[in-house]
Amino acid sequence: MSRTILICSGKGGVGKTTLTANLGIALARQGSSTAVLDADFGLRNLDLLLGLENRIVYTAQEVLAESCRLEQALVKHKQEPNLSLLPAGNPRMLEWLTPDDMQKIVGMLEERFEFVLIDCPAGIEDGFKNAAAASREAIVVTTPEVSAVRDADRVIGLLQTRDIQPIQLVLNRVRPKMMANQEMLAVSDVTDILALPLLGLVLEDEQVIVSTNRGEPLTLNGSRSPAGLAYANVARRLRGEEVPIVDPSKESQGFRARFSRLMQTKIF
Amino acid sequence: MTLRDFIDRLLGRQAASATTARQRLQLVLAHDRSDLNPELLEQMRREILEVVSRYVEIDLEEVDVSLETEERVTALVANLPIKRARPKPLEASATGPAA
Asked: N or C: which end of chain A has fewer CB within 10 A?
C-alpha cells in the first residue's frame, strides 16, 4: 500500500522544499522506493535542491497529454536510484493542471512507489487545492514564528475539512538558545496551539544552506549535522520506527541551562 | 505565567517575547478560526448585554466578552458580573443599548 503525503505550510520560505528533498532521499536510503512530485510548477525548486535541474526533459503535463510515458518523465537520482523526481509542469506552461489531473498522476505514481511526497506551493489557492486533492496524509511544516504558525493554522483547518489524515507537524529552524531564553515560542507552545502530533524537530543549521548550494541534500551523504540527523529521523518515524524527539531547550546541561529551565517553570 | 514572567513583572520589565508571541497568536487564531470580525463581535456583545440587562443589573465596568481557543476549539466566553437581580424583568423595548 502506497502512502501519498502532502508537504505544506501555508507561508512560503519555512522549509517545505528542503524537507521534501531531504525526506525523499532519506526514505529512499532507508529502503523505501520514493517519488517526489513538485506541485509548484510556477516557481519550481525541488529539482534544484536535489541537483537534478539539468536532467528534466518532460513533466507530468506531457504524461497526462500522453506525449510521453511516465518512465520518461521520471528523473531518477543517480546516487540514490530509489528516488525519482517528477515535476508537475514547467513555468512556461499555458494550461494549468486541475485537481483531477493531479489525482490521475498521483494514481500512476502510487502503482510504482511506496512513498509519494508532494511538495505543495505556498498559499491556500489553486496550487494548494490541486496538491491537496491528490493527498491522503499531510505534513505541515512551520517555524516558531507568529506568522508561520498562523498560516499553518489556516492550512490545518483546510486539510481537516478534506479528511486528510494523519496531519503531522514538523517544527523547523528551531534555535535552542533563544527557546531557553524564552525569546522564541517553545515547542509545546506550537504543538498546543496547532494541536498536531509532532513528527520532527529540526534545528537551525548552516549546513542546510551549504547543501542547497551544492544541490546535495544533507541526508544524501548521511550527514551528522543537526538538521541532517533530524530529517533522517523524520523518515524513520514515517516508516514506523520509534525515534524519540528531544526538546532542545531541555537537552543542554550546565548551570546556565538549568537556570533558564528554572525560569521557565510555570508558577500559575 | 512562568517564573521569569513573574520576576519581569516585579521589576517592571517587558515580558519575554515568547510570552507575548503566544498571547498574540492565541488571540489572532481565535478570530481566524471563528471567522468573526471585531465589528460583529462588538455587535454580538451589545446584544447579549441588552438581553441579560433585562433580567439582572450588570456591572458594566467589569464586563468581559471574548473569544478563547484551546485544542482548536473556539469558545465565546462572557463574564458578566451581576450587581443585583431586577425585581421585574424590563420590557424588551425599554432597554437602551447597553455599554
From this structure: N
